[in-house]
Write a structure and sequence with these properties.
The structure holds 3 protein chains of 3 kinds.
Chain A lengths: L25 H14 L17 E6 L5 H12 L3 E6 L11 H9 L5 E6 L4 H8 L3 E7 L5 H15 L6 E5 L6 H12 L3 E5 L15 E3 L2 H5 L4 E4 L5 H4 L6 H8 L3 H4 L7 E3 L12 H4 L6 H19 L4 H8 L1
Helix pairs in contact in A: 1-5, 1-12, 2-12, 3-4, 5-6, 5-12
Chain B lengths: L9 E4 L1 H19 L5 E6 L2 H17 L5 E4 L30 E9 L3 H13 L4 E9 L11 E5 L6 E6 L1 H4 L3 E6 L9
Parallel strand pairs in B: 2-3, 2-4, 4-5, 5-6
Antiparallel strand pairs in B: 1-8, 7-8
Chain C lengths: L3 E4 L2 E4 L4 E4 L1 E5 L2 E6 L8 E4 L4 E4 L1 E6 L12 H10 L2 E6 L10 H14 L3 E6 L13 H6 L4 E3 L8 H11 L6 E3 L4 H4 L4 E2 L2 H6 L3 E2 L2 H17 L3 E3 L5 H12 L4 E5 L1 H5 L21 H12 L5 E2 L8 H4 L16 H10 L6 H8 L1 H7 L14 E11 L18 E11 L2 E4 L1
Parallel strand pairs in C: 1-6, 2-7, 8-9, 9-10, 10-11, 11-12, 12-15, 13-14, 15-16, 16-17
Antiparallel strand pairs in C: 1-4, 2-3, 4-5, 7-18, 18-19, 19-20
The chains are: A alpha/beta, B alpha/beta, C alpha/beta.
Chain lengths: 325, 191, 424
């Protein structure tokens, strides 16, 4: 009880924003995971709330629809006693001539503290972070990064397997268009996992192997020897762009079903960032089966996002300090 | 790290003194609670948690009944979070029993401004509704900023604000002593 | 107008194979004489010792934005930027609003340029009406109005049949179709070069083949028709190879390259740097080396800026939404000197050739030369002057450049148009 099994990391969090895992050190990732580990207990209490972010305001600025990630950030903020505002701003709802930056400047005029950004275009959170005084959290930008998803994935793997270093993790699906794949590649390789990416050649971006991953087009290769299978959602529009001939063809080649899983390790974990296309990338019985930790991912996402909010809140001290003085 | 004999430092308690103080507090707790029924200890991280475990062992040795022990991290309840940067590292709160209707003895190493205890009281009230909360500290150094006092004190040590009281325990520091040091500028002392 | 004697300078006039100490006498807006150590004889004297005296530069590829997007640039600010960069003649591209697809718009631009009396402005007309890629414009009317070539730049002439007919018909006028080589289906929604950087950033990539396939097609059409195709802003090694072979076959093919494609690679995109968003995109180091080699061996005829000014609010959008293009006129010489002359890849004289007589030949303009009787359009350069590129100090309305903050050597100190100093 007094001595914890997890190593104690003493790195301090000094960043204003969380934009991606590419720029984080392994120590910084460990700090987030360790903080999440400490915070997870709060959601098990009868009173699921601590006062750490009392008086802070979080804005969920989502230019792309999302239920899971938005709700997760909202609950994370509320459990830390922050106030939260949800803005579902489809890019098209910006008034004519109004830019994303105009909108952000208006929000900042309300003296908010955090901007949680989801946008269909890569780099929008980075653009906003350069112009905003608030802490910016990337909640998914185009096909670029989705850092909190990869953090909760790492957290879940560590929870179930006790470690990440040395594990074989296979990411299967539309690698080319996946921010989840990219963030996981950065995060998991920094933490010492062996990452394989698998998908049809049309969904494999050029030069991906230069990011330190093994590439295979054959799903059997990706399954064999893997400790973790991370499935990605296949977007229906991919077949319209001739990236896959049909969803049926994809399912037959890459869908994970009970038969294919026979080639896996007996203790393999099945992960998916959600929402699952049942019967395409994942057969229902596997999604709901004993290997699946898909719901644990959702639970852990809350603790990880609480940790990110808590750590980032340590960076707005100057202004606040003056206000209190 | 200099020893308690270093220049400007003075040792106010050695390993033996520390052990005796804990034994005495254990006796006092049993006496005031008329036994150990309904009693639980909650140590404030970091050193208070170790002291709570030691106290629990002392109490069990005397009374032959195990006492539940928990560890409380008060970081998220600090009143100065918006004034310090970066934010301190949060450790887990681990209280593996229901606090409701128990008599809780909060345990910490040094009682100073009282702000840590205020945070701990708020944290506990979010976790349940104890019948009673008492406070045990190894050292009371004075300078209270809130209306808080300890029920059990290992040693009262008059200090100046230019001094720092350091409790060192084998579990963390591989040393057992309490020393007063001249305050180096800008320490990360708990409030 | 009194006579003017430029004294003590180093004249570089590749058209006349002059490269040495000459004085230049200007009379009545024309070059009157070029001789070593001339006496003033009553002419006003301008000391240019230690400076290079070259023909005024000619830019085949300038986006002036007027009419239609005067918030990005006007003919006036574009001409001022040209003079600042040493360009005395610029060719206005037709992707304005409305497009330059009929005589009235050509006249409008030329009248405004004459009224301003800054740099000379030549006009490139559109190949298709409204640049829509459907119907050919009235080529004869546009050439009669003075167009030096036709282009749908900003977009390719994608339809092979239309391109064939265009190349055939333009033979009647002996002028080129200027192709923005880009295969639309391969270009897709791309915003940068397809490679490691686009993969890392999750941005849609544009493969080199988007350009080279169109280059290959148009070379085939040039062979079929005997027409003249000029390729704008080459970006890839494979395109250079194709053009090298086409020239060996004796086809009527010319091409240009921009300073930024000679200087930079995809790496400049960094973390979504929109000042590195250009079309065609900055590609790999191998492509960059191939472009330099192509320029050295004459496969690439000349340097053109593709000066493409945009407003701050547009360029400060996210990378997908920001428009392609950067401000190029004011930095072209220094960037080229830095990338080509400093490492010894080209001599100063060879660089000046690529900026003067070569583009003038393609545009068939009586510019880019200090021949006696030619218009006294001159650029005076301090080859030693070091300066830092500060977009805020640009006279162009376009203040976006990936070269911001770079210290470069080689500065235009004076620009003369028709013997008159236009840049103080």
């Amino acid at each position: 009880m007094a001595t914890t099994a997890t190593p104690v990391h003493t790195t301090q969090w000094t960043r204003k924003d969380l934009l991606g895992l590419r720029e984080l050190s392994a120590e910084e990732i460990h700090l987030i995971l360790q903080t999440a580990e400490s915070l997870r207990e709060i959601s098990l209490r009868p009173i699921k709330k601590v006062p750490a972010l009392r008086g802070k305001t979080v804005v969920n600025l989502f230019f792309e629809p999302s239920t899971r990630t938005r709700t997760s950030f909202e609950l994370a903020a509320k459990r830390l006693s922050a106030d939260i505002v949800n803005i579902a701003a489809q890019s098209s709802s910006l008034s004519k001539g109004e830019t994303v930056l105009d909108m952000v400047k208006n929000l900042e005029a309300f003296k908010v503290n955090f901007l949680v950004i989801r946008h269909a275009a890569a780099g929008v959170p980075h653009l906003i972070a350069r112009h905003a005084t608030s802490a910016v959290i990337n909640a998914g930008d185009g096909a670029h990064e989705h850092p909190t998803q990869a953090l909760l994935d790492a957290f879940t793997i560590k929870e179930k397997k006790g470690r990440i270093e040395g594990l074989n993790v296979s990411i299967i699906g539309d690698i080319a268009h996946s921010r989840v794949a990219r963030s996981n590649i950065w995060g998991l390789t920094k933490l010492g996992a062996h990452v394989t990416v698998c998908g049809p050649p049309t969904l494999m971006p050029p030069a991906i192997e230069q990011l330190g991953v093994r590439v295979t087009y054959k799903v059997e290769d990706a399954i064999k020897g893997a400790d973790v299978l991370m499935l990605l959602r296949i977007q229906h529009e991919r077949q319209e762009h001739m990236l896959i001939p049909s969803l049926r063809e994809y399912r037959l080649r890459y869908g994970i079903d009970a038969q294919r899983l026979k080639g896996a390790k007996p203790d393999v974990l099945i992960m998916h960032p959600g929402p699952v296309n049942r019967g395409v990338e994942l057969e229902s019985s596997v999604a709901d089966g004993p290997y699946s930790v898909i719901l644990d991912q959702v639970t852990n996402g809350l603790a990880v996002r609480m940790a990110v909010l808590y750590l980032l809140s340590g960076n707005q001290k100057d202004e606040e300090g003056l206000l209190h003085a | 790290m200099t020893s308690g004999n270093g220049k400007g430092n003075s040792r106010v308690m050695d390993a033996e003194g520390l052990r005796r103080a804990l034994t005495r507090i254990a006796h006092e707790i049993i006496e005031r609670h008329k036994g150990t029924t309904g009693l639980a200890l909650v140590g404030i991280r970091t050193r208070g948690a170790f002291l709570a475990q030691r106290l629990a062992k002392e109490i069990e040795a005397i009374d032959h009944h195990p006492v539940p022990v928990g560890a409380l991290d008060i970081t998220l309840y600090r009143d100065d979070l918006s004034r310090i940067a970066p934010n301190p590292i949060v450790r887990a709160t681990a209280i593996p029993f229901d606090l409701t209707d128990l008599s809780i003895v909060l345990v910490d190493d040094v009682l100073f401004t009282g702000r840590t205890i205020r945070a701990a009281l708020n944290a506990i009230s979010d976790l349940g509704r104890p019948k009673q909360i008492q406070l045990a500290v190894l050292v009371d150094r004075g300078h209270r900023e809130l209306p808080i006092r300890a029920d059990y004190v290992g040693k009262n040590v008059p200090t100046s604000l230019q001094e720092h009281v350091e409790v060192q325990l084998n579990e963390l520091d591989e040393r057992e002593e309490v020393v007063i040091k001249a305050l180096a500028p800008a320490t990360g002392e708990k409030p | 107008m009194p006579k003017l004697l430029l004294k003590g300078g180093h004249v570089m006039d590749p058209a006349n194979k002059r490269d040495g100490a000459f004085d230049v006498l200007i009379d009545d807006g024309k070059i009157a004489d070029v001789q070593p150590a001339m006496a003033a004889n009553g002419a006003q004297t301008l000391q240019v010792k230690g400076l290079l005296v070259t023909p005024g530069f000619v830019d085949l590829h300038t986006h002036l934005r007027e009419p239609g997007r005067e918030d990005k640039e006007t003919i006036e600010t574009g001409c001022q930027a040209a003079l600042r960069g040493g360009f005395t003649t610029i060719c206005a591209m037709p992707n304005t609003t409305p497009a330059i697809d009929q005589r009235g718009i050509v006249d409008l631009i030329q009248r405004e340029a004459q009224r301003l009396n800054l740099a000379r402005v030549a006009v490139v007309g559109a190949v298709t009406k409204g640049r829509e890629g459907k119907e050919l414009t009235d080529f004869g009317e546009l050439f009669d109005a003075g167009c030096i070539g036709l282009s749908d730049d900003g977009a390719p002439v994608a339809d092979a049949f239309l391109m064939r007919r265009g190349l055939e018909y333009a033979k009647l006028f002996g002028r080129p179709l200027i192709q923005h080589a880009e295969e639309p289906a391969l270009f897709g929604q791309g915003v940068m070069h397809e490679g490691l950087v686009s993969t890392t950033l999750g941005l849609a990539g544009i493969p080199s083949e988007s350009e080279s396939i169109m280059v290959a097609r148009d070379i085939a059409l040039a062979a079929l028709t005997g027409g003249w195709v000029h390729f704008a802003h080459l970006s890839s090694a494979s395109s250079v190879d194709l053009i090298r072979q086409a020239k060996r076959r004796g086809l009527r093919v010319t091409c240009e390259v921009t300073p930024h494609h000679l200087a930079l690679t995809e790496d400049v995109v960094g973390e979504f740097n929109t000042t590195a968003k250009v079309n065609p995109p900055l590609r790999t180091e191998a492509d960059r080396q191939a472009l330099i080699e192509g320029l050295r061996d004459g496969t690439i005829d000349c340097i053109a800026t593709d000066h493409a000014p945009h407003t701050d609010w547009e360029k400060s959008a996210d990378f997908d939404a920001a428009p392609f293009g950067i401000s190029g006129l004011e930095t072209a010489l220094a960037v080229c000197a830095e990338v080509l002359v400093k490492p010894g890849l080209l001599t100063w004289s060879q660089l000046i050739e690529k900026l003067t007589v070569k583009p003038a030949t393609i545009a068939q303009l009586p510019a880019g030369t200090l021949s006696v009787g030619a218009a006294a359009d001159l650029t005076i350069i301090d080859p030693q002057a070091a300066w830092t590129i500060e977009p805020k100090s640009f006279v162009s309305k376009g203040r976006h450049t990936p070269f911001a903050g770079r210290t470069v050597t080689g500065k235009v100190v004076k620009t003369l148009v028709g013997g008159v100093e236009r840049l103080a």
